[in-house]
Amino acid sequence: MISMEPIGRVRSPYTEPSQIPKGLGTVHQALGVIELLPAYEAGLTDIEGFSHLYVLWVFDRAVGFELVGTPPSDTRPHGVFATRSPRRPNPIGLTVVRLLRREGCRLHVSGVDMLEGTAVLDLKPYLSNVPDDELRRGWLAEAEERRVREEAIGDANRREDR
Amino acid sequence: MISMEPIGRVRSPYTEPSQIPKGLGTVHQALGVIELLPAYEAGLTDIEGFSHLYVLWVFDRAVGFELVGTPPSDTRPHGVFATRSPRRPNPIGLTVVRLLRREGCRLHVSGVDMLEGTAVLDLKPYLSNVPDDELRRGWLAEAEERRVREEAIGDANRREDR
After folding, report:
1. Which residues of B fall within a CB distance of 8 Å from A83?
2. A21, A58, A63, B67: least surrounded by Cβ within 10 Å?
């Protein structure tokens, strides 16, 4: 058993899970603040030089876990470790945010997809990308392609209807 | 207080921290296995389609934390949240590995930088990169530039010595 304590909280425009954009093609651009406890402020020294940060946080409103489930971005079920489902054995969330500016122990960021008040466990600098030509996105890429095909068929049917 | 339990262990060629490559320009290519507890195997359904995974794990041999410290990749101190230091308030490690193949609840991966037996907390699919032209790498980029300059001066001095 490993015990963790929040180092701070997320200030977010989202107060209900239903407000958070989900599903295929979602781009998170919401503005928010990562508000660290004042005791940890020294740990932010030199963080301003990084454009993007990893935020590790707690899905503190998720209950239990589900090993296989259907995510909002697909109509088919997938294993929890192949999705971003909140219902995980250890309910840790991971978000890459863009750091806009720092004010003491408050980091103003964009790309927030957490709820207001979410407990933050850790921050890390985002250092490097996976080479684009090596990145494969499994069922998510397939779900996107399926949607593009379905939309094309829909468009063709609508043209025939005219 | 949030309690977590390992979902599995890392099988790694590294048994001592000193064996893990560190510092500027390090590329992690070591082969290893993420060995999930059999109870969680269903959670890996469809994971094979992803080329890269996030592994969240525990720095289980780190003791305490240090808010400001000098990382192996620089001669200057930085805040813990601007580094990958193991001595963090919540000792969570984050590694992007390349998934080579799956055998039941064993994921064969490359890019391991954890010690043998490290507790794993979560796995997530790596879905997207930060646009290259938006990525800034703060003190790490500066440390790299400084080293390149110092090496250039060293080379020039050696030429003058001849």
Report:
1. 125
2. A63
Q: Which of A91, A10, A115 is nearest to B3 (CA)?
A: A91
Q: No. of H helices and E strands in chain A?
A: 1, 9
Q: Kindly determine whether residue B119 and residue A43, on different chains, have CB atoms separated by under 8 Å.
A: no
Nearest to A91 by CA among B88, B4, B157: B4
| Angle at CA of residue B42, ends B41 and B43, nearest 5° | 90
Inter-chain contact A42–B135, Cβ cutoff 8 Å?
A: no
Query: DSSP string covering B105-158, please?
Result: TEEEEE---S-TTPEEEEEEE---PPPGGG--BHHHHHHHHHHHHHHHHHHHHH
Cβ contact, residue pair B90, A134, below 8 Å: no
User: H or E segment at A155?
Assistant: helix A138-161
Q: What is the pTM of this model?
A: 0.93
Which pLDDT score is estimated for A23? 81
d(CA B78, CA B75): 10
Closest by CA to B113, choosing from B1, B12, B9, is B12
Instruction: Give Cα A159 to chain centroid, integer Å.
Output: 38
Answer yes or no: are the C-beta atoms of A36 and A7 closer than 8 Å: yes
Q: Which of helix, strand or coil describes residue A62?
A: coil
Phi-psi region of A111 (alpha: psi -120 to 50; beta: other; left: phi over 0): left
SS3 B79: strand
CB contact at 8 A, B7 and B120: yes
User: Across the 162 residues of chain A, what is the mean pLDDT of every consecutive 10-residue run?
Assistant: 95 95 86 98 97 96 93 93 96 97 98 97 95 92 90 84 72
Which tokens sit at A38? Answer: 């004042």
